[in-house]
Design goal:
This protein is mainly β. It is built from no helices and six strands.
Length: about 80
């Protein structure tokens, strides 16, 4: 299973949008359309989908948004 790290949220000058997260995968490849799973410290699984590329990383869209403690955490890419 491939893994990556959440590096930040999509944001503008004044607004941070935690519904979109920038994820940097550990391995190169095409991740567009793949599912991403973030596991909270309490064990809850939050699933998102890779939306598009973002430099060397990818932009992942989550349905309800992520908590702030997700920054710097590991995620798993499902096939």
């Amino acid at each position: 299973m491939k893994k990556g790290r959440i590096t930040g949220f999509r944001q503008s000058r004044r607004v941070v949008n935690p519904k979109y997260a920038v994820v940097k995968p550990y391995e190169e490849g095409d991740y567009t359309g793949r599912k991403v799973v973030y596991v909270t410290p309490g064990g809850k699984r939050i699933t998102g989908k890779v939306w598009k590329r973002h430099g060397r990383g990818v932009l992942v869209r989550f349905p309800k948004g992520l908590p702030g403690q997700a920054l710097g955490a590991e995620v798993s890419f499902l096939p």
